[in-house]
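Project channel, design review

CF: Before we commit to the Hominisplanchenecus faecis constructs, I'd like one complete example in the thread so the newer folks can see what an input/output pair looks like. Taking Radical SAM protein.
RD: sounds good, go ahead.
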Amino acid sequence: MIDQKCRLCPRECKAERENGQMGFCGMTGKGIRAARAALHFWEEPCISGKGGSGAVFFAGCTLRCVYCQNREIAAGRMGEGISLSRLVDIFFELKEQGAENINLVTPSHYADKIMSAIRMAKESGFDLPFVYNCSGYEKVEILKQLTGLIDIYLTDFKYMSPESALRYSHAKDYPKAAKAALAEMMRQQPQTIYDEYGMMKRGVLVRHLLLPSHRKEAEQVVKYVYDTYKDQAAISLMCQYTPLGELDNYPELNRRVTKREYEKLLDFAVELGVENGYMQEMESAKVCYIPPFDGEGIKA
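CF: and here is what came back for Radical SAM protein:
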């Protein structure tokens, strides 16, 4: 049972969000805030497919990544308040639009409410897979409560170094939390299962966004995930990093990843033995791939 003092993420900030106190995630209130609900075609092919992933972008975030690509909603500056019943309606509306799945983007700080919405949808006959699209900074006790509700975990694994995690995301305990969270995700979904069209129906897909000047740390992430889970977990290596915002204090991040950096990471993964994996084209490092958070699909 989750009490009024928020403990949904590893920070356990204990904010009484239901009573109007703002949590570390930037969110308050009894409802949910979301900034966009629409078909999304820019995930991995096994998630987006031909119809598009039914992505619901929630406002707020439990991390403070200095290079955040979705900073407008992560900081809580955008988003509309919706009820549980409206969220359930959104699931059905996305299905009617042809969504391959329901993609819950940055859901951690609303996990309790999302559980309720999924149960309500399933009780009404909803049958699309649910994708938990998260940062990897998750609390195992909360993930356990999602057992049987989430079909696909689409999770980041950002850092192996506590120093990097502290410097870039203000979460020194990120590596420890991400390892524990991934273990729980794998317990729930120990194998990736694809249909005849290559769409993932169950499983865990681990993403790593290569940061400039951080190829060695990226290799450590890939090695940890592959050594621990082999091809039970799919690995997606991303080169889409785009420097945004104020990075004067982080000059090492104030450029895009080079083709050489990314190719060396891919070569490392191949030599390691990774087969269940995904890569990106270098052209994906563009601002145009960041969707507009204009409230589409949120209001009834």
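RD: helpful, thanks. The CA atoms of residues 48 and 256 lie 25 Å apart.
CF: Residues 24-289 form a domain with the TIM Barrel fold (CATH 3.20.20.70).
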